[in-house]
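Query structure, 239 tokens:
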């Protein structure tokens, strides 16, 4: 476990920086909405869903019902269904850790799990578990710091929720720079833009995820070839 933690920490540093910053923003806003640091830590531990937690602030303060909260959470986080599909076999082999791996599959963690490789001599399953665990620790710490700061400092928090958008931009740039092929990114941008034009800002998540999944399946061979530079026979076996 120590070797896995030591290997996972450098991989998670970009997420750590983002989660501490965005978590601080959430903690501030949650504190300003009347919830102390105990509620902040509780939500970050049990719910652990960045964008959903930001939305939950408005839902809780507006007195929304349980059904409304459940439906909103479903629509906001429905993309995680597609995330989980790509890790079904991998998580099955993780034994007792499988449940936590499913629970902790955030956008940023999913990105790391897809690209990070365990160093030689480090158990792959433990390595992936440590990535997920460290990321949640960063988030909990960030929200706790924000909540405590919010109780001690009085200032205008308008616009601070943009931190979540900024984190996604950073991840987008990092993925663009690190991957050999930009086709998945271009597919994501194109599908989301098309869904935005057709369905509007309130209904674009599900259609865009369906389009992205279909396009990735359609261009899977080209993506595999560009990423790993495999022969035609190897690509056939891989796909």
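Result returned for the query:
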């Amino acid at each position: 476990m120590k070797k896995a933690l030591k290997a996972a920490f450098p991989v998670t540093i970009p997420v750590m920086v983002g989660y501490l910053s965005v978590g601080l923003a959430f903690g501030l806003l949650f504190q300003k909405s009347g919830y102390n640091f105990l509620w902040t830590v509780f939500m970050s531990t049990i719910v652990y869903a960045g964008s959903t937690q930001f939305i939950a602030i408005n839902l809780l303060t507006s007195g929304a019902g349980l059904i409304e909260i459940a439906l909103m959470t479903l629509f906001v986080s429905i993309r995680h269904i597609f995330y989980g599909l790509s890790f079904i076999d991998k998580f099955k082999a993780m034994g007792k850790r499988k449940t936590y791996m499913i629970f902790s599959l955030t956008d940023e963690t999913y990105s790391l799990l897809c690209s990070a490789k365990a160093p030689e001599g480090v158990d792959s399953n433990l390595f992936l578990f440590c990535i997920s665990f460290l990321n949640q620790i960063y988030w909990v710490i960030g929200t706790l710091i924000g909540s405590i700061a919010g109780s001690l400092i009085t200032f205008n928090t308008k616009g601070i929720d943009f931190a979540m958008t900024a984190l996604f931009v950073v991840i987008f740039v990092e993925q663009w720079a690190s991957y050999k092929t930009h086709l998945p990114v271009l597919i994501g941008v194109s599908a989301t833009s098309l869904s935005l034009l057709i369905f509007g800002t309130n209904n674009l998540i599900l259609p865009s995820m369906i389009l992205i999944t279909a396009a990735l399946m359609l261009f899977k061979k080209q993506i595999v070839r560009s990423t790993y530079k495999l022969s035609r026979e190897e690509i056939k076996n891989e796909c």
